[in-house]
Predict the structure.
Amino acid sequence: MADKSYVVDTSAIGAWFIQDEFSPGAERLRDAISAGQVQMYCPDFLLLELANLLIFKRIDRLNV
């Protein structure tokens, strides 16, 4: 069982896919979750927010 638990929001998980200034910390959190050192909880609407983030980031990239 994990020693610590965190509530993870869209910005943390989004940093796993889109590099920004929070990516190094988000990647360490992802690795700890994968290793079973940390338990992750997230809001029910996280998948909708993540889909929205990725869609709009893609649109922004296409418009540049």
